[in-house]
Amino acid sequence: MKSNFRIDGIVFIRRRHLVSGPEGAVRFLLRTGRACSERDPSGQAVLTLWLFGQNQSSRLQFGVQWTAEQSTLQALAAEIVRRYPERKLTAASIRLMPAQVDIDSVTLAIGDGSGTFADLQSVRSSGYPPFSALFNTALTSEQSGQATAALNGSPDRLTVTYRGQVQRSGQGAAQLAATADLSRWLPAGTSANYIRSIS
Questions:
Q1: From CA 10, how far away is CA 70, in angstroms rounded?
Q2: In Å, what is the CA distance from 74 to each residue of 23, 26, 90, 109, 199?
Q3: Of 4, 22, 125, 186, which has the fewest beta carbons less than 10 angstroms from its beta carbon?
């Protein structure tokens, strides 16, 4: 179990130097590659764009976490089982442990669709996995249009970036910058569920 690999391009794992626990679980170290939306108990993104009338400011509120979606974690566990049949692992016996990281800031940025971005707000995370952070950001009329486009699936309009350091065994800390595009967070055709217009 020496090689790292990725699932959906956002998670890699490696064997952690721990023996199986008393419950028979085998522990693996993982690190996510981008942020994802915080989810409510029904699985919906915790996100609302408030529109306050034509040509007026609006407000974007959402929760974010530096973790992997549950479907990705399930796929990762299944891949571990497939790759190492000699260990006779099951998905239930696998424990995916977060890598040791220190998150300094979480930054919301707005773009024009061409790759040019400007920071809107930086906040601190919870300080422990899944490093939750909350944004409550006022937007101008122009920024509101970019945010609306992002929620409708247009890339390079809104991003969230986690910055900090990841601890590497025997190698010290390495700088971490993990960016997510909010246009990927919502299923196609569902943006109306997250946009509220107030006259």
A1: 12
A2: 20, 15, 11, 30, 43
A3: 22
